[in-house]
Each structure stands twice: as structure tokens, then as C-alpha cells.
Specification:
166 residues; alpha/beta; Ribosomal Protein L13p, Chain: A; 4-stranded parallel β-sheet; two-stranded antiparallel sheet; 5 helices; 24% helix
């Protein structure tokens, strides 16, 4: 009994069963009450869109945190600045095509990144990050933690965001 304190051994037909009364560890699962969310700023000036979006998706999802749980929104709120200065490699400004469908016959629509940037350059970053989040309820909730702005100013100074380099 010196090997396991408070343990006992049962021999049952050729099977040796060891029962330990106490566990030395507990698995920690995050829930809504135990999550700590921070605010971070990312500068998108001269960053490649896809590489930046994958890093932002990791921060929004909370994958870098030690208490990550896939069923809880435990990521940070991300503010992306200078979305109008984002870069695409190669000829993607004209050759890449975003396809959407209205649901009606003949309702397939195609847009290029140039056309999206003409509307609003925030749409490029939002669409890239949304595509890298889970496609379910938690993904839709996580997407609400993304704030994209075209310039260098934002209205979230009260949250005291910290700037991170990606």
C-alpha cells in the first residue's frame, strides 16, 4: 500500500483492477463566466490579406489561450486599422472572383477584390476573416468581435486596446 495511498486492488478473474480514491488533476473547461476577453489593435498597413486574416481569426477564436474551448467565445475583440492599405499578391486584384448567389434562378453574382474595395475596403478584411472562422453559431458570434476601419482612427479608446504585431 505504499505505492498508492488510499488505493486498493481487486482481483477479478484474471483482471487486475486498481482503484484510486483521489485524482491528482482536473480538466479545466472554460465557460462564459470564466472567460477573460481583451481588446487588441492590428495595423493592416501593407500586410498581405490572407496571412493577416488567418492570424486575426486565431486571435478572435482564442486559439492561443491555454483555456481554449471550442464551444465558448473566449477570444479577444480585434480592431483592424488601415484596411484600405491591405495588399494582395500576384494578380489577385483582378483575377480573384468572389461568387455569391441570391437564391433565385440566374442569381449568381461575381465580384472582384477591386470592386469590393471600391465599395468599402473593410469588406475585404471582413470577408477573409469570416471565411476562416467556424461555420456555425459560435462562428457567427465570434465574427461580432471584429471591428474593421479604413483609417487609423477608431472609437474604442475607452476599452484601452493593446497593439499587437502579427
Amino acid at each position: 500500500m505504499s505505492l498508492f495511498e488510499g488505493a486498493y486492488i481487486i482481483y477479478s478473474y484474471f483482471i487486475k483492477i486498481i482503484r484510486v480514491d483521489t485524482l491528482s488533476y482536473k480538466t479545466i473547461s472554460a465557460n462564459k463566466a470564466s472567460v477573460s476577453k481583451n481588446w487588441v489593435i492590428v495595423d493592416a498597413d501593407s500586410k498581405v490579406l490572407g496571412r493577416l486574416a488567418s492570424e486575426i481569426a486565431k486571435v478572435i477564436n482564442g486559439k492561443y489561450k491555454p483555456d481554449f474551448s471550442p464551444h465558448v467565445d473566449n477570444g479577444d475583440n480585434v480592431i483592424v486599422l488601415n484596411a484600405d492599405k491591405i495588399k494582395l499578391t500576384g494578380k489577385k486584384w483582378t483575377d480573384k472572383v468572389y461568387v455569391s448567389h441570391t437564391g433565385y434562378p440566374g442569381g449568381q453574382k461575381e465580384t472582384t477584390p477591386n470592386q469590393l474595395k471600391a465599395k468599402s475596403s473593410t469588406l475585404l478584411v471582413e470577408r477573409a476573416v469570416r471565411g476562416m472562422l467556424p461555420k456555425n453559431r459560435i462562428g457567427r458570434q465570434l465574427f461580432k468581435n471584429l471591428y474593421v476601419y479604413e483609417g487609423a482612427e477608431h472609437p474604442h479608446e475607452a476599452q484601452q486596446p493593446k497593439e499587437i504585431k502579427l
